[in-house]
Amino acid sequence: MPNNEDIKAQIEHLDQVKDALLKYRNQFIEERYNDWPYHFTPTKDAILKIVYDKKSCVINEITKSLSLSPGAITLVLNQLEEEALIVRIRKPNNRRSVWVELTDKGRIVVEAINETRLSFWGNLLGNLSEEEQNEYFRLMKKMQEGLQKI
């Protein structure tokens, strides 16, 4: 069984890997979208992905999914709406709820981001054998399940 110093060293190494991964991901994305007229943030990216996956969702779903305050979500939605990537809609059968949907431009942007995401992970996972990739996914899934129990 590892002692406390070994565990501390492993956790420190894990933090370094996480930081390097995020830095590489951000550089990868910036290189591809540097000339776009949008300023992407992780929150904007996450919101666009949620709306793309659901096709249409209420703002409350986004708030719960990202564990952010309604005010923070509204601020980002305002920016996305100004960039013409989303629209807010009040549906006739439920006028109290505000729904969010992607515009055609928003869909094109998200699909381009998804292609970049696939390319990023393909580059990263390309360094691993098929067996190592399967082990990586198994461990990530196990960690995700553990987080859901917290």
UniProtKB/TrEMBL annotation:
HTH marR-type domain mapped to chain residues: 4-145
Keyword ATP-binding attributed: no
InterPro entries: HTH_MarR-typ (IPR000835), WH-like_DNA-bd_sf (IPR036388), WH_DNA-bd_sf (IPR036390)
SUPFAM superfamilies given in the database record: Winged helix' DNA-binding domain
Pfam families with a match to the protein in the record: MarR (PF01047)
A GO molecular function held by the record: DNA binding
Domain of life: Bacteria
Record's keyword terms, sorted: DNA-binding, Transcription, Transcription regulation
PANTHER family named in the record: TRANSCRIPTIONAL REGULATOR, MARR, TRANSCRIPTIONAL REPRESSOR OF EMRAB OPERON
Protein name: MarR family transcriptional regulator
Organism the protein comes from: Priestia koreensis
